[in-house]
Design brief:
Layout (H helix, E strand, L loop, with lengths): L3 H11 L16 H19 L7 E5 L1 E2 L10 E4 L4 E8 L9 E2 L4 E2 L11 E5 L5 E5 L5 E6 L9 H20 L1 H38 L3 H4 L2
Length: 221
């Protein structure tokens, strides 16, 4: 599995830079390491925010706060500290079964579509995030901050590296050549991101379909 340093060196390689870094936390002292330490977290987090990645999706019971909610809402919940994007709020008593269309073997993701649960996000005076909603005992499904690179698929590693290369192009290559390289890397990033999100979505559909398929002994009755 690729490490942060591996991803940074892959990005530098995309730029044709022969230098390699051995540490970005802390930076080893080279200009490349300093730039990678500055831009790698941004590239990683931006990629995380672009999709509901299976490896980064979490589900948790929200912590109820004693704050008074604004008009139109009944409850105030603490936002999970590692939340990057909220996918949805879930009623723990709602059905979660998604049957398989046996005629085509595909997961019917609209079979029991539940109405979206209204909520609003705000920040408290101390800077912490809160969620206003009228759903009691709310469960949140969200994309979490993931820093462990061993959780990333090879395609996600490639995607982060291309975006990082686009950020590094200006400081590393410089001038008009740097701007052109940044544009090329951004296009490569967009192509890699499209492939990564498609692969992740397909894997998740197959996983859900398999988990919902009746056991063989039931199918053969």
């Amino acid at each position: 599995m690729a490490s942060e340093v591996d991803i940074c060196n892959l990005a530098l390689g995309h730029l044709g830079d022969r230098a390699t870094v051995s540490s970005i936390s802390p930076p080893e002292g080279s200009a490349q390491a300093e730039h990678c330490a500055r831009f790698y977290p941004l590239a990683r987090d931006l990629v995380l925010e672009k999709h509901e990645w299976g490896f980064a999706t979490k589900r948790a019971n929200l912590a109820l706060l004693t704050d008074t909610p604004p008009p139109g809402f009944q409850f105030v919940y603490q936002m999970p500290s590692d939340c990057r994007n909220i996918i949805d709020l879930i009623d723990p008593n709602a059905p979660t079964f998604y049957p398989i269309d046996e005629s085509c073997g595909h997961w019917q993701d609209d079979a029991f579509t539940m109405p979206a649960i209204p909520y609003e996000l705000e920040a408290r005076s101390d800077g912490s995030g809160v969620i206003y909603t009228s759903l009691e005992s709310a469960v949140i499904r969200y994309v979490a901050s993931v820093t462990d690179t061993t959780k990333f698929s090879a395609q996600v590693v490639d995607t982060i590296a291309w975006l990082l290369a686009a950020y590094l192009a200006g400081p590393v290559v410089k001038g008009d050549a740097g701007a052109q390289m940044a544009s090329m890397c951004m296009k490569a990033y967009q192509m890699s991101l499209a492939q990564a999100t498609t692969n992740d979505a397909n894997n998740r559909r197959r996983s859900i379909a398999q988990s919902q398929r009746p056991a063989p002994w039931i199918q053969n009755r």
